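Q: C-alpha cells for this one, please.
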Amino acid sequence: MSLNLTKKIIIRVSALTLLALAIMLGVFLPTLNYIKKTANESYKLRVFLEEKYEQSLRSHITKKKLAEIKVSSVNFYPFLFKPGDELKLITFLETLSAKYNINQTINNSTLDKVVSNQVASISMQLIGNYSDILRYTAELEASDYFIYVNKMQFTPAYARNDEITPTTNLNLTVELYVNQQ
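A: Here is the predicted structure, written as C-alpha cells:
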C-alpha cells in the first residue's frame, strides 16, 4: 500500500508539527512557570522592601520627635526633685501642714536613696480636719514638683472617750520624679 505524495507530506508535516508542539510545551511551559514564580518572588520582595521603607520612615520620624521631646523636656527640669534638695522638700511639706493646721508624720521616705527608675517616694500620715486635709492635698498636687499620688487612705479619727470628732486620718504615699542630672 503505497501512500501518495500528498499523504506523505501531510503525515510528515503533522509529525513535525507534533514534534514542534512537544518541544514548545517541554521548553515554554517550564519557562512560563519559572517566570510566574520569579514574578511572585519579586512581588513579595517589593512588599518586604516597602515595609522596611515604611519602618525606616517611622524610625526617622520617631528620632525627630525624640529630639523635639528632649529639647522641650529641658523646661520641666525645674519641676523635678533634685537629689540634695531633701531639706527644701521637707520644709515645704512642714510649711504646708502648718498652713492648714495638720499634724504630719513622715513614716517612710526614699529621698536619700533615689531608686534606679528615678522615682522617690514618701509615705506620711496626716491628722486634721477633713476639709483642711483636702486643701493640703490639693496644694500638694499643685506644687512645683511632679507628684504622683500612689496611695491615699482616709479614715475617721476617734477620741479616746468614743466621741465623734471632725478629725480625719490620711495615710498618703506620693512619688516624686527625680532629675539626676
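A few notes: The CA atoms of residues 120 and 176 lie 5 Å apart. The chain has three helices and four strands.
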